[in-house]
Amino acid sequence: MYEYFDGKLTYIAPTHVILDVGGIGYYLHISLTTYSQIKDLKECKLYASHQVREDSQTLYGFATEVERHLFHHLISVSGIGPNTGRMMLSSITPEEIQSAIINAQVNVIQKIKGIGPKTAQRVILELQDKLKKQGPNALIPTIISQPSAVDEALSALIMLGFPKPQAEKALQTISLAEPDANVEQLIKAALKRL
Question: Number of C-alpha atoms within 13 angstroms, CB side, residue 78?
């Protein structure tokens, strides 16, 4: 629901912040890892995770996408809720958690407050393959690429009812002649040809 909040830090504590975004104050729970990265800032951008439970709606904020990505991995494990996930990220860095999971270091994860041997083993069992398959950049979410002007123009023409092959052919011709044309220019030029 929320991707990030970018605004002025009106209050900061090791466990939470109040971030003023356009005159609205958002209360975001944070980890110590995030706190250490933003404690000296007046303004910041926090990547958000909106957790909805039967009796509450809670916002969690993270200084990096990497930390948020790992948080989502952790809370997907049975028995680990958002508060425990935040506690894990407060105890050791996301990179140390990832390394401990991949290398099956139960003792490292078990040292985290509130994590017993069974939970530590479950975390490794459920996340090890996921993190190994994703490789060394497992914590870096794939960036959704922005569609090109030609792709956007093609989508618009198809929605207007033009057949895809004809629209593609027209746009290909136009983009070769005018490589710097924006979406609007491409659509107008294609409409004249179709």
Answer: 5
